[in-house]
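User: Let's play a game. I give you a shape written as tokens, and you guess the letters that built it. Ready? Here's round one.
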């Protein structure tokens, strides 16, 4: 049957999932997440093990329809042929409903099921893991597991409870079935640090089929807005525990629920009288209840699940609305732009937590402790450029990944002024860190980086944001991301005439687009001279063994190395450190045309050299973000339609502010601070124009 299902997918062209290692996210889900629209996760164990066919299939489809009716996107989670699917097609739902021998997949089972390529329905714990992994904050189910009767002796405690204690997600359910020990279940949830609230006017904790269990929840939420506020507060704390929203059975089904509860109590008493113990208790009670109710419990069960889906979707919608409302915009940010930008920019690249160790001497004595200072900041080339653009009045979408660790908590807190909706925290991964040792005058002496996580910014991950990429004015890629991801974006750029800016990051990574024809679809690149040599060398072109010292020779070499790349690139911005910047490209009105080209055509090439803005040696704190500040401000000027002189001067001023700051992007940076016409008492050196043969 598994083989038939694989064939069915291929024939019907259902290879439209977004891949991320062991996870596959359906396009409807990934698009909704990328656009910050509400998504509701749904389990699938109820399909594979909770109801007979065809009731399981019809219920699954009906629940998804309930979610869509509340303007949310359903994301049913299941394991199919060794892959965790988040969001299922109609064919996949049918496959699960009919599948014989499917596994009931909890946290414990995930490694084995995936390694063996099996299929199965995910329980509450496994669904929570998948939902949190892809960034879905609300999960709806029927009822959660709990502490079994005599659990204090048998230690039979559902994995749902421990998962709620370590996975930050909101679970909407009808409470706990009365066949379990509800009192001890609530005590265990308290021990796990789980915030429990009953939905509605009462704080009575529901017992699945009954609105009353004889116990109360610590808290209550009256409506979707209050529930969303509670969830938002819980998630903002950064603690690794979830929220349980207990929804009582609807009043119109309460009478049937009471009958079922009486049947449950009868079944429990009979089990006790027969001496049934341990793992045999629950299946015995469930079977006896089904016999006593003659199938009536199934209809009440379905109605209850529908109600949970409705309430959970309303909560997800309210939560999404709150998150969008609180997301900072250029207009509300304290760095108020001179004018609002309507252009869309996407930045794909790395995030680092930087540790900058600055010596208090001109040279270091290796093998011993040197006097100095150490500070922490937040960097990464992609993050820096997105930060710079945000402070200059734009709101670029930043696509990246971090670990689910304390470093990522600091990153998101520091980057509140940025659009980080494209940044995902990955369980089991470490946020990238970088340690730089710099001399007294700010020059880099030694750098160490733990940046393996950047390799997870894969083509499959980035493809989730295809709509944003297609609608962008400019896409910036940094060299930290995999070459395959660069190739994917460049291929899209070629098909849809998107302008791509490549920031090489360092000499080793500068080669990535040039390992294939991807570079021919780029519009801009901003290498230094060493990185420019790497680009040429990768293309098989001759490069010097050593770099020249004089400015004249440096400019001559930069022009020679830029010429072959300009056969396809629109513009090269060659950074020359203390010698300023060389802008190379198409001649237009006595300067280089930085504005995006409309079509490729024969053109006259030229270059303009801009000396660096003077910076007093004692004011240089570090040089780690100067190039990124330059690039970010240049991009801001370009999308604002500025002329070349204004763009470059904005970049040079942004670089100067970075040099004087302990942070890669100076927190004081603003559109006002880089406005060339507003900088008083500043004499701009005259740029030098030259032709490129």
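Assistant: Ready! My guess for every position:
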């Amino acid at each position: 049957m598994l083989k038939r299902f694989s064939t069915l997918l291929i024939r019907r062209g259902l290879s439209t999932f977004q891949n991320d290692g062991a996870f596959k996210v359906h396009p409807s889900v990934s698009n909704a997440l990328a656009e910050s629209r509400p998504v509701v996760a749904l389990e699938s164990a109820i399909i594979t093990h909770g109801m007979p066919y065809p009731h399981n299939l019809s219920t699954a489809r009906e629940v998804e329809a309930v979610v869509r009716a509340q303007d949310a996107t359903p994301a049913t989670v299941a394991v199919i042929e060794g892959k965790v699917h988040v969001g299922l097609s109609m064919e996949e739902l049918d496959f699960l409903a009919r599948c014989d021998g499917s596994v009931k997949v909890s946290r414990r089972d995930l490694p084995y099921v995936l390694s063996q390529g099996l299929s199965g329905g995910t329980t509450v714990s496994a669904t929570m893991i998948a939902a949190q992994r892809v960034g879905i904050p609300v999960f709806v189910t029927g009822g959660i597991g709990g502490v079994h009767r005599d659990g204090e002796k048998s230690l039979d405690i559902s994995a749902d409870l421990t998962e709620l204690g370590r996975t930050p997600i909101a679970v909407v359910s009808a409470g706990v079935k009365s066949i379990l020990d509800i009192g001890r279940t609530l005590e265990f949830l308290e021990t796990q640090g789980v915030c429990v609230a009953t939905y509605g006017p009462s704080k009575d904790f529901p017992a699945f089929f009954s609105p009353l269990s004889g116990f109360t929840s610590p808290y209550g939420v009256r409506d979707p807005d209050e529930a969303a506020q509670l969830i938002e507060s819980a998630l903002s704390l950064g603690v690794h525990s979830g929220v349980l929203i207990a929804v009582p059975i609807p009043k119109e089904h309460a009478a049937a629920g009471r009958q079922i509860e009486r049947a449950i109590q009868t079944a429990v008493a009979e089990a006790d009288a027969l001496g049934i113990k341990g793992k045999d208790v629950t299946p015995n009670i469930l079977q006896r209840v089904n016999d006593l109710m003659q199938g009536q419990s199934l209809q009440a069960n379905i109605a209850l699940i529908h109600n949970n889906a409705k309430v959970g979707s309303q909560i997800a919608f309210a939560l999404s609305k709150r998150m969008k409302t609180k997301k900072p915009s250029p207009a509300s940010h304290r760095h108020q732009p001179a004018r609002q930008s309507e252009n869309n920019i996407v930045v794909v690249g790395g995030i680092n937590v930087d540790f900058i160790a600055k010596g208090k001497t001109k040279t270091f004595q290796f093998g011993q402790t040197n006097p100095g200072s150490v500070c922490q900041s937040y960097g990464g080339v992609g993050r820096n450029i997105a930060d710079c653009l945000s402070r200059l009045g734009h709101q670029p979408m930043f696509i990246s990944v971090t670990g689910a660790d304390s470093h990522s908590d600091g990153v998101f807190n520091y980057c509140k002024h940025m659009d980080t909706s494209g940044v995902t925290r990955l369980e089991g991964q470490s946020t990238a860190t970088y340690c730089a040792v710099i001399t007294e005058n700010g020059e880099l002496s030694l750098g160490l980086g733990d940046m393996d996580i950047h390799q997870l910014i894969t083509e499959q991950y980035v493809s989730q944001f295809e709509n944003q990429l297609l609608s962008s004015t400019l896409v910036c890629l940094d060299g930290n991301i995999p070459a395959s991801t660069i190739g994917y974006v460049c291929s899209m750029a070629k098909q849809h005439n998107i302008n791509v800016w490549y920031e090489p990051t360092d000499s080793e990574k500068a080669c990535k687009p040039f390992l294939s024809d991807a570079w021919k679809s780029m519009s801009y690149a901003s290498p230094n001279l060493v990185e420019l040599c790497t680009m040429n060398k990768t293309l098989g072109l001759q490069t010097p063994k050593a770099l020249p010292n004089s400015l004249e020779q440096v400019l001559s070499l930069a022009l020679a190395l830029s010429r072959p790349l300009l056969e396809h690139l629109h513009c090269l911005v060659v950074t020359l450190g203390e010698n300023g910047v060389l802008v190379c490209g198409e001649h237009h009105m006595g300067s280089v045309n930085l504005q995006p080209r409309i079509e490729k055509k024969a053109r006259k090439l030229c270059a303009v050299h801009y000396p660096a803005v003077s910076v007093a040696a004692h004011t240089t704190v570090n040089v780690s973000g100067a190039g990124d500040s330059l690039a970010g401000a240049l991009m801001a000027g370009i999308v604002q339609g500025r002329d070349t002189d204004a763009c470059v001067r904005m970049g040079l001023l942004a670089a100067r502010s970075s040099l004087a700051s302990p942070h890669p992007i100076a927190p004081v940076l603003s559109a006002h601070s880089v406005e060339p016409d507003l900088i008083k008492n500043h004499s701009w050196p005259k740029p030098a124009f030259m032709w490129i043969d």
